[in-house]
Amino acid sequence: MGSVKRIVLVIDALDECEQDDDIRAIIHLLSLEKTLRSVRLRAFVTSRPELPIRLGFSSIKGKTQDLVLHEIPKPIIEHDIAVFLNFRLAKIRDEYNTQSYDEQQLPSGWPGPLAMQALVQMAVPLFIFAATVCRFIEDQAWSDPAGQLAKVLEYQSKTQQSEIDKLDATYRPVLDRLLTGSEAAKRSLVDEFRTVVGSIVLLAEPLSIQSLARLLRTPENIVMRRLTPLHSVLNVPASVESPVRMLHLSFRDFLVNPDKRNTNPLWVDEKASHERITTSCIKLLERHLKEDICDLRMPGTPRKDIEPGVINSHLPAEVQYACLYWVYHLEKSMEQSSARITDSHPVYSFLKQHLLHWLEALSLLGKISEGIAMVRSIQTLISTLEDHHGLLSLVAWSHDSTRLASASRDGTVKIRDPVTGQCVSTLEDHPGSVRSIAWSHDSTRLASGSGDGTVKIWDPVTGQVTGQYVSTLENYHGPVRLVTWSSVVARQYAARIGLGR
Q1: Is residue 386 part of a domain?
Q2: Which residue segment(s) compose the domain that 88 sits in?
Q3: For residue 374, what pLDDT is reported?
Q4: How many domains are contained in the chain?
Q5: Are 234 and 226 within 8 A, CB to CB?
Q6: How far is the C-alpha of 363 from the C-alpha of 359, rounded, in Å?
Q7: Helices 113-123, 145-153: crossing angle, 10 deg rounding
Q8: How far is CA 156 from the centre of its chain?
Q9: Are both 484 and 404 inside the same structural domain?
Q10: 3-state secondary structure 273-314
């Protein structure tokens, strides 16, 4: 037999797989290593200790060795980070010197042992700090490695307490370089940063500069202007058609950390940003969605018979993103909030006009099953009236649309604010179930008919009964199934329908 080939497979950030099933599949495939004959495979996997990953590795039959970052001896981490920094900074120095005049070149020993030791101590145990600092120092937008290094070292005293403080030292040098100019210029920059970068870090999947600009209705040059100085924290492609990606999730964690609201001038309000993205998605879909969006003119055309190019030309990337993820951003914007979807909510207006168009687009994208799940998610966000103790009999809007009355078989009538859904008064005087209600034409009175044959007139503001009428029809003692107001005189008539059946 010939020599066995050795292969080392490195899988970084396994926890960032979108689906738990993908994680389980990868771990299962790694467990099959022992069945290989022609290859000797070793896998190096990094991940946060999420439950699916811990369970996955505990269930496989194979040789594994766990290394917990916080349990690795500090000298080993210091050594590894020092090796990385020495290599990267030497490369930065040499590349800079090849492009500089003699008097501008960095000395051969740059950055020197003291600066190197300071960087190592600032970084431990976060390799992301070392990687981000190196990208910041070599950033061609500034072309000043020594000056950039000095900016980093200014934050040396801020890294001694916790890893959160270390994230400050990782990202603040990058962001603070943006905050220059007049106060008006800074305010404009902050607004643009929160719109552009705040959206990038919260997107469900990366978008290109071109698609992001169209989604946010922001000129491409403004998007580019905000991204150009951020190559050390974002993967900014040369082409506007390629996706912009975060280099590390800790950048998002840093920007949206609520504890940094008062200390980070570029802090991103996560809830407000999701709300803004939701609005952008809905407005984009309102402009693009329509019946037969691909102009097929044959509603029964099987999806497999439609060329992908046709779908992509009528549903560009930003429209596809909006179709797939507007509900995700809506849910995020309403987390831990009492706000709900009502008739005045933009989502209601969108669905009333474009629900079928949206489902058609999802079908063309092969995502109709996801659409069903999204509809169910929307249902959980709809404002509901649930504080009656009995079954609802009916509801009635006031004629001025400022109040909503709901009648229940528990004998109560509740008056609500239709915008908030809050109950503003409860009318309780019927001994039996309330079978009918009607507002007066000026919306100042409410009539209710009950199962015991009585009709009551209410002041909906005070909740007081202002009039009561009892059945006088011979041989009938059933419920009042309908009350209505005369349009001629300002008094009420109760009409019985169905004779109790």
Answers
A1: no
A2: 74-176
A3: 96
A4: 5
A5: no
A6: 6
A7: 50
A8: 34
A9: yes
A10: HHHHHHHHHHHHHHHHCCCCCCCCCCCCCCHHHCCHHHHHHH
